[in-house]
Specification:
Elements: H1 3-31, H2 36-50, H3 58-72, E1 78-82, E2 89-94, E3 100-105, E4 109-114, E5 120-125, E6 131-136, E7 142-147, E8 152-156, E9 162-166, E10 173-178, E11 184-189, E12 194-198, E13 203-208, E14 215-220, E15 226-231, E16 236-240, E17 246-249, E18 269-274, E19 280-285, E20 291-294, E21 300-303, E22 311-316, E23 323-327, E24 332-335
Antiparallel strand pairs: 1-24, 2-3, 3-4, 4-5, 6-7, 7-8, 8-9, 10-11, 11-12, 12-13, 14-15, 15-16, 16-17, 18-19, 19-20, 20-21, 22-23, 23-24
InterPro entries: WD40/YVTN_repeat-like_dom_sf, WD40_PAC1, WD40_repeat_CS, WD40_repeat_dom_sf, WD40_rpt
Keywords: Repeat, WD repeat
Protein name: G-protein beta WD-40 repeats containing protein
Length: 336
């Protein structure tokens, strides 16, 4: 065995030991809201004390420090609390540019917020029942919302005015979603039905039936050719937009197999979102926690401060730098 190979093995062994020793320290530091710069300094100081780093290995050491910077980027601090809603928050979504947030609430309103200032910049009124879902169009100029008043409404973002009302729904609207081209909307209803709508003409164009209980959420695939739905019948279904047929019930799109079980919540999970890099998931639950999960390992890597209330919904900014959540106590929080 060459001296270089032996040195690498020693370094790897030291690094594993170092990580094990530091893991408990990190938990304490994060719980005390220690400054990120201090954390990085501790990492470097502790590592250099315990490992005799030679000059020729500095490049590799820099790579390790860089990986720690990426890791700590997942530890978010509370930046803003948005107040204005008069009832619990049912959904929060970032705009495509990440500079705005749209929220819906059981106070029957849809509101638009400026992320930088935390100020409410628009309120959309017109629904006569709980608003369960709202999101921006792909161009960021329009909002779609769905309500227990059995209507879907389109709103002008800048003016807050109603552009169109789709009132052909036969039941409470639980979720709405734009297609990626902005031409269509998919909605899920309490009576187990999924409806597709043409935005230009405001007409229902397709009805999807097959779930045996209310459909909690729906979303288009990136190519707009399929729709995925989640129902209280305990299934996730994939639908072909062109034929309206339910092709498979899925967990993993390619294999149909369950890949990971993320264990840690002590009550029903209400919402979850991937980070843009696909490596981390944020979730919220009736247990009042908002943990972050490492997708590869299935382990919880951090949790967000929840101010003693239950978060009903969560979303990640397009660049992955911020998290927002809507709470039962009428507030919206932003972490970054």
């Amino acid at each position: 065995m060459s001296a270089a190979t032996n040195e690498i093995k020693i370094i790897k062994s030291q690094l594993v030991s170092y990580l094990q020793n530091m893991s408990k320290i990190f938990v304490v530091l994060f719980n005390t809201q220690t400054n990120l710069t201090v954390l990085l300094q501790l990492i470097i100081q502790n590592w250099t004390r315990n490992c005799d780093i030679k000059l020729g290995w500095i490049d590799d050491f820099d790579k390790i420090v860089f990986k720690y910077v990426q890791y700590f980027a997942k530890f978010f601090q509370l930046l803003k609390i948005l107040k204005g809603h008069e009832h619990c928050i049912s959904s929060v979504k970032y705009s495509p540019c990440g500079c705005k947030i749209v929220s819906s609430s059981h106070d029957k309103t849809v509101r638009v917020w400026d992320v930088a200032s935390g100020e409410q910049i628009q309120i959309c009124k017109g629904h006569t029942g709980y608003v369960c879902s709202a999101e921006f169009s792909p161009d960021g100029n329009t909002i779609v919302s769905g309500s227990w008043d059995k209507t879907i409404r389109l709103w002008n973002v800048e003016l807050g005015t109603e552009l169109m009302k789709l009132d052909g729904c036969s039941s409470l609207v639980l979720d709405v979603c734009f297609s990626s081209n902005g031409k269509n909307i998919v909605s899920s209803l309490y009576n187990h039905i999924i409806w597709l709508w043409d935005v230009t003409y405001g007409k229902g164009i397709q009805k999807l039936s097959g779930h045996s209980s209310s459909v909690r959420s729906v979303q288009y695939s990136p190519d707009d050719q399929k729709i995925v739905s989640a129902s209280h019948d305990k299934t996730i279904a994939l639908w072909d937009v062109n034929t309206g047929e339910r092709t498979i019930r899925i967990w993993d799109v390619e294999s149909g197999n369950q890949l990971k079980v993320l264990e840690g919540h002590s009550d029903s999970v209400l919402d979850m979102k991937y980070f843009p890099d696909g490596q981390t998931i944020a979730s919220c639950s009736y247990d009042g926690t908002i943990p972050l999960w490492d997708v590869k390992s299935g382990k919880k890597i951090n949790g967000l401060e929840t101010r003693g209330s239950c978060a009903y919904c969560v979303d990640i900014s397009p660049n992955g730098s911020m998290i927002t959540a809507g709470f039962a106590n009428n507030i919206i929080c932003i972490w970054g």
